[in-house]
């Protein structure tokens, strides 16, 4: 599952799941994510989820010809595939893209000490 987390001063304000329908972001209340910010266009950006043939997925962000642009990791973008932990700035708002599939892969496991000196193992 992929999500956008809205951040304020590093704290989570909202969490939005990205579905096959995608998410629209903008100042209009018709958007999936409504931002009451004059620096945000009526329909500013869209995040899309595309499923690959192997069952994996990839998310893209599209700037919808907004006046003040969409930024990913402080770089203006038109269309860009998102990667886990990308920071998205729209107007004065900040979002973090989290791909929970990649997060599971990144988790570390604890080592267990065996009865043999100097030998360790991973418990399944």
Would you write up a description of this structure?
By secondary structure, this protein is mainly β. 6% of the residues lie in helices and 49% in strands. It has one helix and 13 strands; from the N terminus they run βββββββββββαββ. The protein has one helix at residues 100-106, and strands at 2-8, 11-18, 23-26, 33-34, 45-51, 57-63, 70-72, 75-77, 79-81, 87-90, 93-99, 111-113, 120-122. It has a six-stranded antiparallel sheet. The chain has a five-stranded mixed sheet with strand order 4-3-5-6-9, with no helix packed on it. A two-stranded antiparallel ribbon has the order 12-13. The two termini are 23 Å apart. The model has no long low-confidence stretch (mean pLDDT 87).
Specify the overall morphology.
elongated
Secondary-structure element pattern, one letter each: EEEEEEEEEEEHEE
Question: Which structural class do the helices and strands define?
Answer: mainly beta
Using only C-alpha atoms, the radius of gyration works out to 19 Å
Parts with pLDDT < 50 across at least 5 consecutive residues: none
Oligomer: single chain
Helix content: under 10%
Show the helix and strand layout.
Blueprint: E1 2-8, E2 11-18, E3 23-26, E4 33-34, E5 45-51, E6 57-63, E7 70-72, E8 75-77, E9 79-81, E10 87-90, E11 93-99, H1 100-106, E12 111-113, E13 120-122
Parallel strand pairs: 3-4
Antiparallel strand pairs: 1-2, 1-11, 3-5, 5-6, 6-9, 7-8, 7-10, 10-11, 12-13
């Amino acid at each position: 599952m992929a999500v956008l987390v809205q951040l304020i001063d590093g704290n989570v304000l909202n969490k939005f799941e990205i579905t096959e329908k995608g998410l629209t972001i903008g100042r209009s209340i018709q958007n999936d994510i409504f931002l009451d910010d004059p620096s945000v266009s009526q329909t500013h950006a869209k995040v899309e989820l595309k499923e690959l043939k192997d069952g994996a997925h990839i998310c893209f962000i599209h700037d919808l010809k907004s006046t003040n642009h969409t930024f990913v990791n402080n770089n203006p973008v038109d269309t860009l595939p998102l990667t886990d932990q990308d920071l998205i700035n729209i107007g004065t708002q900040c979002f973090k893209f989290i791909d929970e599939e990649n997060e599971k892969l990144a988790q570390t496991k604890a080592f267990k000490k065996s009865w043999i000196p100097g030998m360790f193992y991973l418990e399944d």
